[in-house]
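Predict the 3D structure for this chain.
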Amino acid sequence: MAKNRKNLCNQMKSMLFFILSSVALASTTSGCGTSLTSETKLRVRILGSLTQPTGATGTKSPMAQVYLFNNVSLQPADGSAAIDMYSGDPGELRIVSRPQEVWSTTDLTDYEDVSFSSATVKFDPLVVVIDQDGEEHNITLDTGDLVMNEPFTLTSGTEKVITVRASWGKTITPSDDTTPETTVSAPSFTLFLGETE
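Done. Predicted structure below.
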């Protein structure tokens, strides 16, 4: 009986060690935009930041901005043609300072273990800026194609996350006695792998 109890205790210790080791492994691979999952997955998310973009001279920051998402394309590292990942209708997104998902897919069988040199998240250049009073202002970006020049591989059984951060702090100059119309500067964008804000 004592021997059986000792064996059972050893089995439980081994199982606990395996569970803790698995958790530790998952946490060590969750950086650099990668985490372990039961299936291969690619996600894109976006958030607004109160960082003031270079060249902006406003005094107020937006409450939100509205974007029209069109596509995500991946550039294979071997130099072959870029791959469009989305074929649906454009989707409208109201962006605030909290991260939100733009798009995701697990339909990656053809791209597992393929290396890519860059990714482009494509929005319509027309953006609606909503100020703190709820008023809407239209701006047009120089381009809605936002490029992440960070190489990555869609390793089988992992998840990759591309984050788009729109820096829009103090991009609004409200109208006053000397400025008849409110002016709005375009945000700047940073794209990177991972979920660090």
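DSSP finds one helix and 15 strands in the chain.
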